[in-house]
Every structure is written in structure tokens, then in C-alpha cells.
Amino acid sequence: MFLPPRDILPLLHCPLCDPSAVLVNPTTLHCGHTICTSHVRSQSCPIPTCSASRPGELTPNLPSSSRVAFFPALPAAPDDPSQALPSDAVTRADVIIAKILPLVQQAAAALDVPGVPFVDTFNDSGDDSDDDPPPSGAGGSTDQHRSDPPQSRHDPLTDFEKELTAELTCEICFMLLYQPVTTPCQHTFCSKCLQRSLDHSLLCPLCREELPGYAYFQDHPHNKVILSLLLKAYPETYAERGHAIEIEERDARLDTPIFVCQLSFPGLPTLLHFFEPRYRLMLRRCLESHSATFGMIMPPRAAPLAGIGVDAGCEFGTMLEIRSVQMLPDGRSMVETWGTHRFRLLERGTLDGYMIGRVERIDDDEDDLDEWAFQADEPSTVPLPPSPSTASLSSSNSSSSTSSSHSHPLLAHLTHTAPSTSPPPIPPPQSTAALISICGAFLDQLRAGTAPWVVQRLNHTYGPQPPATDPAAFSFWMALVLPIDEHEKAKLLPLKSARLRLQLIVHWIGQLNNNWWFSSGCVVI
Q1: pTM of the entire predicted model
Q2: Looking at the predicted structure, is the pLDDT value of residue 159 above 80?
Q3: Domain architecture of the chain: domains with CATH
Q4: For residues 31 and 44, what is the distance between their CA atoms, to the nearest angstrom?
């Protein structure tokens, strides 16, 4: 049964009035306490038991098993104009509580007087004609009105429940408030609804007044009076509301969230900047999941490829594990991630503006030793001449007809970049050690002919060079170092052989050494 109005009134008492009395012109402070405006002296809470240190309520609710290092936004400086509140912010009346107070008081008075219909007590038309005696005549006399059959009258408690529910409805989602948060303009919304609104605009969704920055709300507690009303008057409905939100967000994570941003590879760090509202929402949902991961693919090409279109290669990507999050005062965040594995995007859709998909994991297969057995006697090192005219890779063009017969057919397809009647020249297949040696010689050549700050940037951006004993990790690291088109590098994602990836990288190295702009020392990284 719904809570009677007389049991709700104690929840609306001011904690500072002595003796205890119902709130008069109530205002809700940043700490979540609601008091009479007459007790307000500053923006700080005058309640002695109010703790100055409060846990954040609008920060992501990280599971206990999460390994993400989350750093909230630093508090803004006191003189920051973006954090300034309106001069009358501490004297404004809480909109919802100011409406609920007379509603509860009148309902309690009506229910305490038998025979007084609750419907006559509430008249929000603004007309005070109810105070005048009703006109005489058929259907207009007070006696006839009171002699109506009981079943035609409104149930006072039912009417009160409808009115109270209407006041405790969020103006963004139009559902019962959940974890209510009150803004400085004294409007109250669900915490998650307000958070999503702040992703798009710092204006109040109702009055359009400019709100403080994101840092103001990241440690904003719930409105304690409204929350107590919800828990006392709607215990089952409130619990169902929270359960529905939990199921909705859990179902939203059944499909992998996809961040369309840039190229990344497994086993390497990637630093990302989240600023778009849709991806800020995606990040919060990922942080509240138990895996704290999302997929990342490259954006479509600027120009379509003949017969393939602009989405060529965009169906492959890398799953990223969130390692740390640094929130910024305006709601943006810097996110440090680590590539865990590759995937293929089988299906894609949209959820709240960002991409979701059904993915298939891609792992390396064991290299076929029989296929590469003839390479066992090759030297483990292959020198890389400094000039393209004497490069061993370019000299292999004369024997391309022979070498192509030994190369992998998939590699021949990936290195085919332009229409031609004959296959492009491909370097002869070599041992894994020989391929890694070619890459190492190219790195030495790059370090010798490049400014020191470029080499330092490579080490800090992509991490230290993986050892030669790990060709899978080395192939991805080496690809990131090469100054070639990102969509070209993305050809490595579907390859399930580290040897094939290294052979493709060596092919790119040969192309770089054959380009005049690279051989002359013009390298853009």
C-alpha cells in the first residue's frame, strides 16, 4: 500500500529548525542536504554532521574486480569563472521539493477530514472560485454533490499518489527519478540523465541556465530529501527502476563497443582522447563493465578503392584494454589502453550514437614448418645497403618470376597496390631471422639519418622495441614505426602468420628505399 501523506511529512522537515518543522522555502545545497533558505549563510553546508569529503556520485561505478586506474578531474581553481555559481544560487527554492511540500500538506489535511474529496483540494487551474459557494440548481448543490454514490468519487490516496509520482518524474527520461541530483538552478534529474546531458551541453535541460563545469558534478551527492521520498514511498518501483537500468546497460554491453579512431596493434600501448558525447558515454559504460575493453577500427578511407569502396580494411581492428583514465575538468578524458588481440567485425550496428558490433577474435596460427623448410639454410642476417640503387630488396626484382612462385599467395595479393597485367615483384621468401635482421638494419639506417628527437619519440610513443625472439610482437611494432599510410599498415591485421607480416614489412622497406624522398632524408613520422 502507498505511504500515507502523514508518514511522508517527517521526511520534509528541516534538519536545522528547532523545534523540528516542515521546510520553508527549501533550497538544496551542493552536498545534497535541503534546508530552509533562512539558514543559508554561504555556499557551505551549515549542518554540523555534513562531511566535507564526499565520494563521487557521478563518477563511473567501477567493479571491485576492475584493474583500471581512474583519476577524477582536478578541482577547478576558486577564481575559475566556469565554476562560478549565480549570486542567488543559495537562496533559490528547490523546484521539486517546493511543489511537493504543499501537495503533501494538503493531502494530509484532506485525508484527516472524512468526507472531503481530495479532488476538490487540488486545483492547479489557478482559479480560486472553489472558495465560493457552488451555484444552486440541478447538479450544483453541495448536498447533491455529497450525496453522490461512493463509487463515483475519487480515492484521495490514489489521487495523491498520482500527483506525487508526477512531481518525482525526471524531465529528461520521463520516468521515476533514480539517484536524483539537483543542479545549482535547483532542478533535479536522474544522475545518469544529467551526465548524458552534460556530455552535449553545460546548459540546464529545463531553464537553459549555464551550469558549472563537469568537475562540479563529478563529486555531486544525491538529493537526500528526494532520495528518501523515493525509497520510502516507492521502494519496489525504485528497486525495479534500478534493476531495469542495470539490465539495459548490461544488454548494451552484449555487443562489443567499437571506437572509430585510428590504427592500433596488439601488444602495444595506445593513448586516446575522448571528447565526443557519444564516446564519453561509451567510455563510462566500458568502465562499469567487468572487462573494461572496447574495439577500435580505423575510419573509412577518404577516397574509395576501385571495386572495394571506402570501407576496405575497416572490418579488422584491435581490442583495447583500458589501463588508466585521467578525467579533465570539462568532461573530456585521456585514456591509456593496451592492445590485447585482433578481431574481425562480422556485424555492426549503432547504440546511442556509437558503433557496436559482433566480432570474431583473430589469433596467429602455427607457421607451417614444412612450407618454409627450404629456408633453414639461409643466413640469419641480411645486410641492408644504405642506398636504394644497391638495395638487396630492389635487386630481387630481376628474379621476381622465380621468387613469386615461392611467396605466399595472400602476400602477393596484399602487395598488389596498382592494376597491372603481371604480378608486382615480391622479395624472395626468407627465414624469420633474416627478415628481422633486415628490419633491424633499416632501424639503424633510420636512426643514423634522423634527428635524435625522432628516435626518442618513437621509443616513448610505441614503447621499447620487442626482442627478436618475439616475432609476432616485433612485426606489429615495426609496422607502427614505418612512415607509410595507415590503411596500408592495416593489411597486417588479418594475417595470422608473423612470418608473413614480416615479409610484407620487408616489402614496404624496399619500397621506401626506392623512393627519392625517403632516400634523401625526408621522413615524416
Answers
A1: 0.64
A2: yes
A3: 1-42+89-120+155-252 (3.30.40.10), 254-362 (2.30.130.40), 373-519 (no CATH)
A4: 8
